[in-house]
Amino acid sequence: MRVLSGIQPSGALHLGNFFGMMQKMIAYQEQEELFCFIANYHAQTSLSEGKVLARGTLEAAASFLALGMDPAKSVFWVQSDLPEVQELTWLLSNFTPMGLLERCHSYKDKVTQGIKPNHGLFAYPVLMAADILLFQSDRVPVGKDQKQHLEVARDIAIKFNNEYGEVFVIPEAEIDEDVATVPGLDGRKMSKSYGNTIDLFQEDKALRKQVMRIVTDPTPVEEAKNPDTCNLFQIYSLFLDGAGREALRQRYLTPGLRYGDVKQELFETIREFFAPYRQRREALLENPDHLREILANGAAKARRVAEKTLRKVRKKTGLIY
Ligand code: ADP
Ligand code: TRP
């Protein structure tokens, strides 16, 4: 089975990205044919500073590799290294009814938030469909917020296949209900757009500061606390096994627990958990040419698949004459 997903390099990676997406993708490379890419074209819909995007792309790639993405076991590349995706986007545009895009929540939400809509933002789901269909992906693990975009990709693929025969594999979304949404510092979904993240790779001081900002309730120290409604408990639980979680739960239920102590422990836990990865990431970033070479090799592998699909599509649509 071919599994594909992408992540935008539009900001620092956080615990939500790690537990919600990256960890799962890294595990997939052991069992399935994994395609994973850095969606830098998509990031351009929210980021216009060239230098920031270029740096963010290298950092996202280094982070993924440091966390265990293995270019020998997977196909790992940067989206814009394959211009084929742009050509397919155009070809698919002709099978994308306006109404399909006009109904997209993600687009409407961004416009409601005050983002000035442009064509890139509007066409975002078509580019995403091209990412998926170009590689004949069977399965696409995504967060709940991307569910509708997957439906758009399927609709476009079905429409195209109806016209030209079985050209595209119809992809299935994989929305893992078990991977609970990781809460942010304020209890809402952890997201860079809410400014409530705990970032994976940062200096100890900054990390500690983020952890200390986790919002907790005002229950006095001498009273028992409720772990089930506690944000700090949920974030800490991500790093604990069943027994560890139970032990923490008991501490909550016993009067005397100080949230500040739990935060300090959580800070140390996160720091230790990511320390080896941080070192590997720094080593990768110290040699960007080597990193670029890894990515170029990944792009070459991806291109072999992309070219095959695109040749078929060009032929069917009359571009080969
Ligand atoms: P952000 O909300 O910070 O902009 P993205 O939308 O770029 O994050 O998310 C990239 C990937 O990480 C997606 O697959 C998404 O589902 C996952 N993800 C992001 N935040 C969370 C979260 N709080 N909990 C679980 N998964 C998340
Ligand atoms: N839009 C996705 C997100 O923000 C990223 C993405 C781009 C993607 N292309 C994709 C995810 C193709 C899955 C498949 O999370």
Fold and architecture overview:
There is one protein chain. The protein is mainly alpha-helical. Helix content is 55%, strand content 7%. The chain has 2 domains: 2-181 and 287-316, 3-Layer(aba) Sandwich (Rossmann fold), CATH 3.40.50; 201-282, Tyrosyl-Transfer RNA Synthetase (Orthogonal Bundle). The strands form 2 sheets. The chain has a 3-stranded parallel β-sheet. Helix 3 crosses helix 12 (259-286). The chain is globular and about 80 Å long. The mean pLDDT is 96. The protein binds adenosine-5'-diphosphate and tryptophan. Adenosine-5'-diphosphate is lined by residues 7-8, 16-17, 20-21, 142-143, 181-182, 189-193. Adenosine-5'-diphosphate binds at residues 7-8, 16-17, 20-21, 142-143, 181-182, 189-193.
In which order are the strands of the major sheet placed? Answer: 1-2-3
CATH class of the largest domain: Alpha Beta
Average pLDDT reading:
96
Low-confidence stretches: none
Number of domains: 2
Indicate the CATH architecture of the largest domain.
3-Layer(aba) Sandwich
> How many β-strands, per DSSP?
5
Q: Tell me the overall shape.
A: globular
Report the structural category: mainly alpha
CATH fold-level topology of the largest domain: Rossmann fold
Q: Please name the fourth-level CATH homologous superfamily of the largest domain.
A: HUPs
Radius of gyration: 22 Å
| Ligand kinds | adenosine-5'-diphosphate, tryptophan
First-residue to last-residue Cα separation = 34 Å
**From N to C, what is the helix and strand string?**
EHEHHEHHHHEHEHHHHH
Largest sheet: 3 strands, parallel
- β-strand percent reads 5-15%
Number of helices: 13
Helical content class: 55-70%
